[in-house]
Amino acid sequence: MKLKEQYEILNFKDFGDNRGDLVVVEGSGQDIPFVMKRIFYIYGSDDEVVRGCHANLNSEFVMINVCGTSKVKVDNGSETEVIELNRPRMGLYLKQMLWKEMYDFSSDSILLVIASEHYDEHEYIRDYQAYLNMVGAEKKD
Ligand code: TYD
Questions:
Q1: pLDDT in the model for residue 122
Q2: Which atom of ligand 1 is closest in space to residue 42's alpha carbon?
Q3: Residue 99: which of 114, 79, 116, 117 has the closest Cα?
Q4: Distance (Å) from CA 115 to ligand 1 centroid
Q5: Average pLDDT for 120-140
Q6: What is the distance between the alpha carbons of residues 39 and 106, in angstroms, rounded to a whole number?
Q7: Rounded distance, CA 70 to CA 78, Å?
Q8: Residues 6+ apart with CB under 8 A from 43
């Protein structure tokens, strides 16, 4: 499958007015293409940290930098793309079996992640070569 078919940039509705912004993320196939089972958020990282570095057999994710910015590198074993998360109303939807790395966090970055599954370490692929073998890709140096 082409990398472009394995992720999607989402733009959530913003009911901003003179009191401030209010961004709405509806689950269950409305704004998020799955039923949410878990959220987690990452903060206190910086521009030297690289997080993620794994793929998931089952979980799908939507990532939102609700504050600050970060970058996400997505990799399907054949193609890579870097997406900058830089707006609170922007979401990055990732399908299963994508290798992902999150990095270049601004000091105020709060990266909210919405997941389609409960946490299960067994569905994590943390070895890049094992990932390439599973997706049938050639080793990249
Ligand atoms: P890790 O997978 O290294 O986080 P990231 O990929 O976002 O950098 O997870 C760090 C620790 O937190 C690890 O011990 C597993 C644990 N963890 C949970 O228990 N539940 C969760 O939902 C997540 C995302 C991590």
A1: 98
A2: 7
A3: 79
A4: 12
A5: 91
A6: 21
A7: 23
A8: 67, 109, 110, 111
